[in-house]
Amino acid sequence: MKPKVYVTRMIPRPGIELLETYCEVAINTEDRPLSRAELLDKVRDKDGVIGLMNDRIDGDFFDAAPNLRGYANYAVGYDNIDVPEATKRRIPVSNTPDVLTDATAELAWALLFAVARRVVELDAVMRSGQWSGWGPLQFLGADVCGKTLGIVGAGRIGTAMALMSRGFRMPVIYANSSGRRNEVLEKELGASLIPFDELLERSDYISLHAPLTPQSRHLFNAKSFARMKKTAILINTGRGPLIKEDDLVQALKKGQLSGAGLDVYEFEPRMAEGLAALPNTVLLPHIGSATDTTRTNMATMAARNLLAMLRNERPETCLNPEVLAQR
Ligand code: DGY
User: pLDDT tens-digit profile of 144-177?
Assistant: First the structure.
């Protein structure tokens, strides 16, 4: 009998084809996330599941899937998974690191430049036919070269984003909740690890890449915005709840920072009231990893991970490898 696998949303075909070599595969083919009740119902008889970051993988999920032998997240972030609960139940769980690092770091730069040089706002000016011709005082933005880049969370993506700054000759500073030094950034860029509050005060651009944990939730709130330079620009391609979004709207209105480029939101897919009306924001629909190649690589990585779990082998990127030793 082939193992039964469920995929909670359609992913690129190569991932599905890999699963089909070994498993009976069922997929949510509707172009919408499953409701909680649907999710729990669909996984009832499954041996393995590939899910998305908006699927909550917790005790109730594991209760609903008594045959489960592995769960593969189609995302690098895994704040949706209760990893200790999976470990308690000896269920291996995995994520998709590395394959989306460059795509996400590139998007952080796209947002940074778009906000600094008002790309979206001024594109609208052109399209509306309102431009009356070149003027010395028109549409001024902010420089990037030589400005200080602050990285919050210098993991894989934060490191890649910082390394991409080389061409722009930016001093780089970083803060890590673990306090761990990043030797690559220090060696390659002369970057320095500094306390979070100091990073807020010194950065011209702040890019968020920290994982979402109870400690990092609302790291950016009214108090943090009050410490930032009034000219600073905040970029978030990590997780929305790192920012208390209502506070960000107020801070932008008060001019406590100059702009924000966001790919992620506190309550996706909704945005805080007032955010969309602010011209100094660029707002994207969580597309950090959304390139053809990256999403395909995520799909094949998630499929390989799940197949390994179902074969009692070690998945490439297991979040609780200790359960494998116990099997
Ligand atoms: C992730 O992988 O965590 C992203 O948010 C989606 O690609």
Answer: 999 999 999 999 999 999 999 999 999 999 999 9
User: Is the C-beta atom of 155 inside 6 A of ligand 1?
Assistant: no
* 294 CA → ligand 1 middle, Å: 11
The domains of the chain are located at 4-98+292-325, 101-283
Residue located nearest, by CA, to atom 3 of ligand 1? 77
Per CATH, which fold does 4-98+292-325 belong to? Answer: Rossmann fold (3.40.50)
Please give the CATH topology (third level) of the domain spanning 101-283. Answer: Rossmann fold (3.40.50)
Domains 4-98+292-325 and 101-283 alike in fold: yes
Distance 77 CA to ligand 1 centre (A): 6
Mean of pLDDT values over 107-135: 98
Counting DSSP H helices and E strands in the chain, the numbers are 13, 12
Considering the entire predicted model, what is its pTM?
0.97
The confidence score (pLDDT) of residue 325 equals: 80
Strands (E) in the chain, as ranges, are: 4-7, 24-27, 48-51, 70-73, 93-94, 149-152, 172-175, 192-193, 205-208, 233-236, 259-262, 281-283
